[in-house]
């Protein structure tokens, strides 16, 4: 359905995340993947969704000079916000274990920002999902980190993994947002962009 709406546009997904790529395929979109290296750093004054918004926009910058009139570039970033701190991807095994211990028996927020860029338009939106974990034992945390190696995931976990099945006791908001993309907002925004064209 969306693919028909966007038949005159070229959708570019600038993400190596297999989860985000799968979401785009599930939407029935024809899209291409373009990757450019970006140093994912942000000013320390930023907080909460300002961080993910900034990083999503930062990822779009290297592409701006090469966009064509029918291109729609989509960049995205996900953070976990807990105890007034942004948790990104763990640096190593010890960091992953430390992060999961901090999330144990607590509620955190998963924030995903998505930036849509064309030659004459840019819009950044974000979505917030609250996730509550049960109390995790050291054995459970160590098993998850050693087995699933969640080093490419913000907050050191993937909700679609084993840990999501055994640890999540409550979720408020979009499940897919926790996986890395608020698909409902992407769908709506792509339709809006075409309507304005």
TrEMBL record:
<feature type="site" description="Important for substrate specificity">
    <location>
        <position position="78"/>
    </location>
</feature>
<dbReference type="InterPro" id="IPR003697">
    <property type="entry name" value="Maf-like"/>
</dbReference>
<comment type="function">
    <text>Nucleoside triphosphate pyrophosphatase that hydrolyzes dTTP and UTP. May have a dual role in cell division arrest and in preventing the incorporation of modified nucleotides into cellular nucleic acids.</text>
</comment>
<feature type="site" description="Important for substrate specificity">
    <location>
        <position position="19"/>
    </location>
</feature>
<feature type="active site" description="Proton acceptor">
    <location>
        <position position="77"/>
    </location>
</feature>
<dbReference type="Pfam" id="PF02545">
    <property type="entry name" value="Maf"/>
</dbReference>
<comment type="similarity">
    <text>Belongs to the Maf family. YhdE subfamily.</text>
</comment>
<protein>
    <recommendedName>
        <fullName>dTTP/UTP pyrophosphatase</fullName>
        <ecNumber>3.6.1.9</ecNumber>
    </recommendedName>
</protein>
<keyword id="KW-0963">Cytoplasm</keyword>
<dbReference type="GO" id="GO:0009117">
    <property type="term" value="P:nucleotide metabolic process"/>
</dbReference>
<dbReference type="InterPro" id="IPR029001">
    <property type="entry name" value="ITPase-like_fam"/>
</dbReference>
<dbReference type="GO" id="GO:0047429">
    <property type="term" value="F:nucleoside triphosphate diphosphatase activity"/>
</dbReference>
<dbReference type="GO" id="GO:0005737">
    <property type="term" value="C:cytoplasm"/>
</dbReference>
<keyword id="KW-0546">Nucleotide metabolism</keyword>
<feature type="site" description="Important for substrate specificity">
    <location>
        <position position="160"/>
    </location>
</feature>
<keyword id="KW-0378">Hydrolase</keyword>
């Amino acid at each position: 359905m969306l693919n028909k709406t966007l038949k005159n546009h070229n959708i570019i997904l600038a993400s190596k995340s297999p989860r985000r790529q799968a979401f785009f395929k599930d939407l029935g979109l024809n899209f291409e993947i373009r990757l450019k290296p970006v140093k994912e750093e942000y000013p320390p004054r930023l907080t909460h969704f300002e961080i993910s918004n900034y990083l999503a926009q930062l990822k779009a910058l290297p592409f701006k000079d090469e966009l064509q009139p029918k291109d729609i570039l989509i960049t995205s970033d996900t953070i976990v916000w807990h105890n007034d701190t942004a948790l990104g991807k763990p640096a190593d095994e010890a960091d992953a274990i430390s992060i999961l211990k901090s999330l144990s028996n607590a509620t955190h927020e998963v924030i995903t920002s998505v930036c849509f860029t064309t030659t004459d338009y840019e819009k950044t939106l974000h979505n917030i999902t609250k996730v509550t974990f049960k109390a995790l034992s050291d054995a459970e945390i160590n098993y998850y980190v050693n087995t699933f190696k969640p080093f490419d995931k913000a907050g050191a976990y993937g909700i679609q993994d084993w840990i999501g099945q055994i640890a999540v006791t409550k979720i408020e908001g979009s499940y897919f947002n926790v996986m890395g993309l608020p698909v409902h907002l992407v769908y709506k925004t792509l339709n809006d962009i075409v309507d304005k064209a």
